Amino acid sequence: MSLKKIEEIKSNKFFKVWDIIIYAILAVVIVALFLSVFLTSDNSPLSGVNVYYNNDVVFTYSFNDNKYEILSESNISVEEDDNSLTVYFTTDGGDGHNTIYIDKSAVTVKVTESDCSNRKDCVYMSAISDNSGLIVCTPHRLKIMPAEYTDDGQTLPVG
Predict the structure, then answer these.
(1) How far apart are CA 115 and CA 128, in angstroms?
(2) CA-CA distance, 100 to 113, in Å (whole number)?
(3) Who's near 20: CB < 8 A, 6+ residues apart?
(4) pLDDT confidence of residue 132
(5) CB neighbours (10 Å) of residue 15?
(6) Which of 30, 38, 58, 65 is 20 to 30 Å from 149 at the Cα level?
(7) Which of these, 118, 109, 155, 156, lies nearest to 136 by C-alpha position?
(8) Complete edge-to-edge strand list for the sheet that includes strand 76-80
(9) What does the pLDDT read at residue 70?
(10) Is 36 exposed, middle or buried (0-12, 13-18, 19+ CB in 10 A)?
């Protein structure tokens, strides 16, 4: 390498002005996205939950009224005691199942058992304890989402 080339490389600055401007814009965008995700989540208390299968509601539960409704008898069965509700979900072909545990006293919902895959991601998802939670079992096409209940008992999906 010639001495002229070495001197040219030494005289160049590590960052150009436009590089710094682009990095600053990227940093502002990342901070804005981070803040928008964490500041806009709905952390209000959980008032109810809807269970969806193939994007259709198959089960609803209201913590306020302590009432549930089974909308698909072929997919859902329920065992109830004083402090909890255990919802057993079965896929249409009967080849898959999930166990959903609703803790009435703690106001939480969790999937406790599934045969969806080796990883069983839905079992390891954190319990839904406020309106920002969501549990998804993709192989079984199952979603568990918070729901708000109106004064006349109608459910509204949150979010």
Answers:
(1) 20
(2) 7
(3) none
(4) 86
(5) 10
(6) 38
(7) 109
(8) 76-80, 84-90, 97-103, 108-114
(9) 96
(10) exposed
**Core vs surface per residue 109-124: b (16+ CB within 10 A) or e:** bbbeebebeeebebbe
For residue 31, the surrounding DSSP H or E stretch is helix 17-39
Average of per-residue pLDDT values in the chain: 88
- First CA to last CA distance, the chain: 62
Amino acid at 78: V
Which residue positions in the chain have pLDDT lower than 70?
A: 1, 149-159
From 41, 43, 85, select the one nearest 60 (Cα to Cα).
85
Q: What's the CA gap between 94 and 69, in Å, rounded?
A: 21
CA 106 to chain centroid, in Å, comes to 19
Q: What is the pLDDT of residue 22?
A: 94
The residue count for the chain: 159
Query: CA 71, CA 77: separation in Å to the nearest integer?
Result: 10
Whole-angstrom distance, CA of residue 38 vs CA of residue 40: 6
C-alpha distance from residue 10 to each of 2, 13, 16, 37, 117 (Å): 13, 8, 14, 43, 57
